[in-house]
Amino acid sequence: MSPIPSADLSTRIQPAATPPELIRNFCIIAHIDHGKSTLADRMLQLTGVVEPRAMRAQYLDRMDIERERGITIKSQAVRMPWGTHEVEGGPVVPHALNMIDTPGHVDFTYEVSRSLAACEGAVLLVDAAQGIEAQTLANLYLAMENELEIIPVLNKIDLPAAQPEKYAEEIAKLVGGDPEDVLRVSGKTGEGVEVLLDRIVERVPAPTGDADAPARAMIFDSVYDTYRGVVTYVRVIDGSLNPRERIVMMSTRATHELLEIGVISPEPIVTKGLGVGEVGYLITGVKDVRQSKVGDTVTNMAKPASEALSGYSDPKPMVFSGLYPVDGSDYPTLRDALDKLKLNDAALNYEPETSVALGFGFRVGFLGLLHLEIVRERLEREFDLDLISTAPNVVYDVTLEDGTPVKVTNPSEFPGGKIKTVSEPIVRATILAPSEFVGTVMSLCNDRRGQMNGMDYLSEDRVELRFTLPLAEIVFDFFDQLKSRTRGYASLDYEPSGDQVAELVKVDILLQGDQVDAFSAIVHKDKAYDYGVMMTAKLKEIIPRQQFEVPIQAAVGARVIARETVRAMRKDVLAKCYGGDISRKRKLLEKQKEGKKRMKNIGSVEVPKDAFIAALSSDGVGGKETKDKKK
User: Fold this and answer.
1) Domain 397-501 is found in CATH 1.10.150.130
2) Mean pLDDT of all residues in the chain?
3) What is the pLDDT of residues 139-153, one digit of tens each?
4) 7-203: CATH, from 3.40.50.2300, 3.50.50.60, 3.40.1350.10, 3.40.50.300
5) β-strands 121-127, 149-155: how paired?
6) Could you tell me which residues come within 8 angstroms of residue 249 by beta carbon, excluding any fewer than 6 positions away?
7) What is the CATH code of the structural domain delimited by 319-389?
């Protein structure tokens, strides 16, 4: 959600709550880049909530990162009037459609799950030129679990490569029904969008709830506004919320006065209250970001509800990475920035940690690599921070010989001594690809220690492959490899599937015999040698030459598996010898050799911070940070 503008922009005052029978709550779900935001743009235009002069592409994507990358990161709720309904003994009024535009990437599935909980229906959008993809299936199953009314839609029918008949049959098989029931629309030209809006009014059930019961509203998103404090987005389940009454957050028991209440259409509109089934925002003027938790229940203080709504399950971080400020004095700013970002991104988990090399920072849990990249970019842009992110890794469960369990989120926490077992997280991966690439995909998954669970043909030329893979094997470059080997046609979705015992070892990096914790990694026994060779070669390029020879070694336990040497800087001691006896030259060289040997015994290697940044950064050698410094 984007920040709410100041109060002077919210000039239109709406009447009290809309009757539930006129409300339709729905979301748009699809694979990434199937046209969700473009379809939402046409709906905003058709319903007249955005004036033509104010319209722009991707209207609901408010963040610069979303517009630059052409992807949706945050769900956006908007209220639109559509159709007519005659109230008994009253005027003809339109239905109120509450639409939530959701992200499509696997890393933002938690955003989608929260949006689904606030809706009664879902528009399943499929690209008419690409067909069903992995995330389409994942989002469809999420919607079915929430028992939502599914409206299947084929988008981009105006494309020359579109095959609506073929893909309508695929969708009909999936959701059950006839291919004729699948709507054909074009988000670009607006063709078929009116029919879709009519279908939503007709098929999506009206929200149910007890209007006379104590108020209960579920928080499905929040955002921090510099001027107005915490802005909370809610879906009212029972009762009603009205301005100037005192409300209670049921999990924290914090009480606040409702300063402003309203709906988003798509700019904020102040209302006289929110009733059963309505989606809107609350402003209490609170500045403490920890007092508004996603999934919490809001109720009335004077007439509180006895039981809270069942909230959302907490998201489980899939990938961990360290975030450190380049300037140590920025640590308090980074802490405040993470607090404010968590308000807007409930899937973010973090805890403080320190590193000998990088100082004070945070160990942050993400849902995937894109989530990591987006969070880091948002922190740098929105809070003007310069950050180092360490290479991503996953959580391991280590059991020692005496049965003591140890949870390892960082290689430096890996215990020494005798280890009984090491467990790593595994995921169930679903890969959709053209049938010609089946062998390529199977080869890639086998290289990454994958086990095949099954294979189904969705049509003659499209196949669904299911694998169990270690999470550690897919958090680096698996998706890039998959795309390059299938010419960009494959799509991937994955979900956690427990843990498995594996032969994992900790590879330590030694500089002149001293272990450097920051460079350690936990890898499979078969990959240890490759990691050791790669890391020692990388450090050889990065560490500046000293007056003495510096050995760089990779070791598993006490056994060295790879070695590189940074050569010493040598003065040309023979420069002053013009001819003469060889014995004099030998004497000078021996003297220099003794000096270097003595220096090596008492000298220590100072690793510059730039070297740590380049070696540890997820950007790789000569990453973004070091390039910026050179500029």
Assistant:
1) no
2) 78
3) 788 888 888 888 888
4) 3.40.50.300
5) parallel
6) 255, 256, 291, 292, 293, 296, 297, 298
7) 3.30.70.870
